[in-house]
Amino acid sequence: MPLTVRYRRTRRTRNVLTLLCGLLPVVLGVLILHLQAERALQQHAHETATEAVRQFELMLDNTAQAARELLPLAGQPCNDVTLALREQVTRRPFVRSTNLVWDDNLYCSSLFGSFKEAVNPGDYNQGKLWLMNGNPVTPNTALLVYRLSEGRGGALTTLDGYHLSNILRLIGRQTLLLLQVGNNWLSADGKVHSGPLPALPVAQNTLNSSRYAFTVSAGFAEGETWRYMSDEYPPLFSLLMFFGVISGAIGHIVQRRSTSPSHEMLRALEAGEFIPYFQPVVHGDSKNWSGAEVLMRWKHPKEGLVRPDLFIPFAEHSGLIVPMTRSLMQQTAALLGPLSPTFTAPFHIGINITASHCQDLQLVDDCREFLDAFVPGSINLVLELTERELIEPTAITHRLFDALHALGVKIAIDDFGTGHSSLGYLRQFNVDFLKIDQSFVAMIGIDALSRHILDTIIELSAKLDLGIVAEGVETQAQCDYLTDHNVNFLQGYLFGKPMPAADFINALSHH
Ligand code: C2E
Ligand code: CA
Ligand code: CA
Fold it and tell me: 271-508 falls under which CATH superfamily?
C-alpha cells in the first residue's frame, strides 16, 4: 500500500531530524573547538619560532663578538695570534673554534694553529653563515660557521651544532622546529639536511631573523589539532554531548507533539488506532437485524475513544480519509467475513464514503477486495455518501458508479434532507437508499414542519422506488410512526448503539 511506504519514509525522516537536532550542537561545537585549537596551535607555533629566533640570535651574538675581536688580527703571523684565538674559545660559551683568513685562505686555527684551507665565500648564506654537516675533526656533527671579513682579512668563528639542536629540542618540545641557513637545514635530532624546508602539516610558522641570515620554522605533526583537542577539551566535549542529547530530545519531543493533526493521524493509522464500531440497522416491520453501519472510532492512546466528527474533517482535508476508510473496510472484512456463511439473508453493511474517495477508480478495487472476503451473495455492501457533500458528475464518477453497480455495490444518500440533491442527481448516480437525517426523526411529534418534510421524503423514496432508512430512532413513538409509514429500515439507540466488534459479533449471534 503506498501509504505504508509513505509513512515509513516519514518516520525515517523524523528519526533523521531527531538525529540532526542532536548532532547539530555537537558538530557546531566540535567545529568551533577545532577552530579554537587551530588558533591556539598557530599562536603556540609563532611563540616557539619567536623564542627560537631569539635564542639563536643570542648565541650568534656571542659568536659574532668573538669574530669582531679577532678580525683586526687577520694577516698577522699565526704563531703570534694562536693564543688570542684560543682565548676566545675559552672565554665564550658557544664558540667552539676560531680561525683567521687572509685572501680567502684559512691560515690559522684555534684547533691546529697554522693551517691551510681555501675559503669559498659562496658557501656562506649572504656571505655570513654556513650550516655545515661537520668538519674533518668532527664529521657528521652540525656546525654553524660565522664569517666576518673586511678587505683581505677575515675571521671565522664556529658554533657547535649541539647547542643549536638542543635549542630546537628544548623550545619545541611539543613543536616541530627547524633551523634553516641558506640551502641547509637542521632538525632537532642534530642532523643537517640539504634542500628546501619540508612543509609542516599543522600551523606552520616561518620566521626570518632580522639580524642574521637564518630562518626558523615551527609547526606540528599531522593530526595534532585533534590530539590537542582531546588533551585540552574533554570537559567541553562532555558538555557538547550533553547539549546534543538535550537538543535531540527536544527535537524528538517537538516532532512528537507536532500540532499537525494529519501528522498525528498518519501515526495513528500506522498504529492501527482507527477501528470500526458497528451500529445495527433493523427491518422496519420485524425489527430483526438487517445489517449494520460501520462507524469509525479513534482509539487514542492518551485521549481514549475519539468521536469521528472530531477528526474526520481533518482526515478529509489531508486526504488521509481514503487510506483510513480502506483500513476500516479491511478490518470489517476480516471481522465479519468469517461469519458470512451463517448469514441467512443478505446482510447490509454500510460504509461511510466521502467525495474525495470517488475521484478515482481505486474505490472499485477496495470494494472488490471487501466483497471477496464474504461468501458470495451473503452481504449487501452499501456506500453511504452524505448529501452535504455532493459529488461532481464527471466522466470518472460515472465510470466509478457504473463499475460499483456492476459489482453489486449499493449507494445510499446519507443525511438526506439536509442538503439539496435534486431528483436528477438521485437518478444520475443510480442511488439505492435514502437515509433520512436524524434531525427529522427527532422532531416526530414535536415539530409539524419537520414531520411534513419527513412525510415528503418517505413519499418521494416510494415513488422513486428507493429503499429508505431512518436514522436516530430513540423512542418507541418515533419507531411506531416510521413503521406506520412503511419505512423499510430503522437505525438508532432504541435498537442498539454503535458498539465494538466483539460486542457486535456477540449480539449478532442472538439476532
Ligand atoms: P452518520 O453517518 O450520520 O452516522 C450516524 C451518527 O449518528 C453516528 O455518529 C451514530 O453514532 C449517531 N447515532 C446513531 N443512532 C443515534 C441515535 O439514536 N441518537 C443519536 N443522537 N445519534 C445516533 P458517530 O458515530 O459519532 O458519527 C458521526 C459522523 O461521522 C457520521 O454520521 C459520519 O458522517 C461520520 N463518520 C463516521 N464514521 C465514518 C467513516 O468511517 N467515514 C466517514 N467518511 N465518515 C464517518
Ligand atoms: Ca452514515
Ligand atoms: Ca446520517
Answer: EAL domain (3.20.20.450)
